[in-house]
Write a structure and sequence with these properties.
3 helices; Glutaredoxin; globular; 4 strands
């Protein structure tokens, strides 16, 4: 009997989640830092590059990922790599380097100690 491997058991090769949470009480949150725009831009870039669909890349919104102090944040699975980004150029770099070519963008990594 064979055991499933990560390669053949995953519906998507990579999955990126963008925190788009908005806090109504005025606390800092990713929604205040153009997270929705980053999500939309990433989705467009993935489609334009032909990277969307089964066995490829999926782009999703997420509620609070509890890393507010580092926001805005996105996380890529299955590698569980956390990114903090500033603008569309950062998103483009994540798409090209990590989502397309599997290379982590070191300069955009979320510091591990930053949580909520």
């Amino acid at each position: 009997m064979t055991t499933p491997t990560q390669e053949n058991s995953s519906y998507y090769q990579r999955h990126i989640f963008f925190c788009t949470n908005e806090r109504k009480n005025g606390e800092d949150c990713c929604a205040q830092q153009q997270a929705q725009e980053a999500f939309e831009h990433c989705k467009l870039q993935i489609k334009a590059a032909g990277l969307s669909g089964v066995g490829k890349v999926r782009v999703n919104k997420a509620g609070c990922l509890d890393r507010c102090a580092a926001g805005p944040v996105a996380v890529v699975y299955p590698e569980a790599v956390w990114y903090t980004y500033v603008d569309k150029h950062d998103i483009d770099e994540i798409v090209e380097s990590h989502l397309k070519n599997g290379q982590v963008v070191e300069r955009l990594l979320t510091p591990p100690h930053l949580g909520r």
